């Protein structure tokens, strides 16, 4: 059996409902999109009590099936004003799955700041959060473990979220208890704050719900074996982690450098901001470069970065942070980025949005590019809700507009991820058309050299990447297993049969992904978005990007075949 839990925060009431196992097979991002459409969330102010906040997991959550315990957070975004699904790894989805929860919905607004606690027996408690308010995430996490024991997982709101900052995400605990796995994008933390929920604590039951244990175990074993045999998984993600993408993009010419002015920071042999330099340095210092963020994960693309004394700085340091909070701000010292990353985790904010916002201050001339002390000071200022902090916490689009800047790298008010759309074109097309805002995770094709490809093949590559991403997100699967998962969809169906006892059709994967995209685009249409909102900022079309000298080629009027697919026409 699977269940859903709806919490009326104003009345402090909990409503459990059984979820048919056939429906539980359509979880994660699909569930958030479907519920937001059913609740007509496009009609409500994102920070109003009427806007629901949904936490949904995939059908394999709670098991040790590798990389299958991600949590999708869905709402109407106060940053983009469209639909938003932000997902993260860690232990929260694992704990929800072990309670048999398919999804959790927060409704209304609590009368006071609250910690929601779910016990392994299925009891729900609404508890005061006063002792946690104003704290950074690391200290707040310590207090949660002290109050509720070590066998918990949590979703936690940082101090920037408390005062409604649109940089704020929701931090999930990792396997070591760090508040470091963020559902970061779109201001989902501000929505949690509008409901006056500081944290959700879930006791880990320790018993996955499985219909056919032998079948589930066999599918788990086969999938893990395929991951261990896959070169991309083991030689890239496992060995180096996502920071290896910085090396690739720097060489490829698609790295964001100084507010997207250049696509390469340094010659590849002199580049110090990627995995080829950082991984051996971190290992020599005693850090970990193969680390799992969630139970059972074989990929283990996370890391624990330490300083020259062997003391932990942050876990994890990932490519998007290196790109936006690092090279995009002119930094070339990975230790500095790691320290800024830790600050961002403690604040509970999106490093992509934060990095793009800080780069605008440098663009305005408030400090020289690469001024680490200035960047650190600006992040530290976000702890206290001063006028300056509230201004910066509103994100790239709003800060850029207030500063009167023209070079503001956003789509649908959300900062563009660390793939310059002039060079990484298929990903750029995804970031243009996705209902999610400028989000590479909606369908990434970062290694695709497109200039010699026919336009229709580029659009097809973007669409296929979007379908696969939506399916993975709906299954609670990390996309870093995609080189195996996307080619072994029958194995995924077998695993779901073992866990839920539900037979799924052969076209399940594609149908699931395509339906997610249709729901999301329908939501944004009803929220008032048009294709004109998909246009890149003008400077991408006007300024050739060194070293390749490319300008952006794609405009909304060029994307009619893709729109037809996305809208289900």
UniProtKB/TrEMBL annotation:
Residues 1-208 form the Aldehyde ferredoxin oxidoreductase N-terminal domain. Keywords: 4Fe-4S, Iron, Iron-sulfur, Metal-binding, Oxidoreductase. SMART domains: AFOR_N. Its cofactor is [4Fe-4S] cluster; tungstopterin. Gene3D superfamilies: Aldehyde Ferredoxin Oxidoreductase Protein, subunit A, domain 2, Aldehyde Ferredoxin Oxidoreductase Protein, subunit A, domain 3, Aldehyde ferredoxin oxidoreductase, N-terminal domain. The keyword Oxidoreductase applies. Pfam families: AFOR_C, AFOR_N. The keyword Acetylation does not apply. GO terms for molecular function: 4 iron, 4 sulfur cluster binding; electron transfer activity; metal ion binding; oxidoreductase activity, acting on the aldehyde or oxo group of donors, iron-sulfur protein as acceptor. Belongs to the AOR/FOR family. PANTHER family: ALDEHYDE FERREDOXIN OXIDOREDUCTASE, TUNGSTEN-CONTAINING ALDEHYDE FERREDOXIN OXIDOREDUCTASE. This is Aldehyde:ferredoxin oxidoreductase. It comes from Thermus oshimai JL-2. The lineage of its organism: Bacteria, Thermotogati, Deinococcota, Deinococci, Thermales.
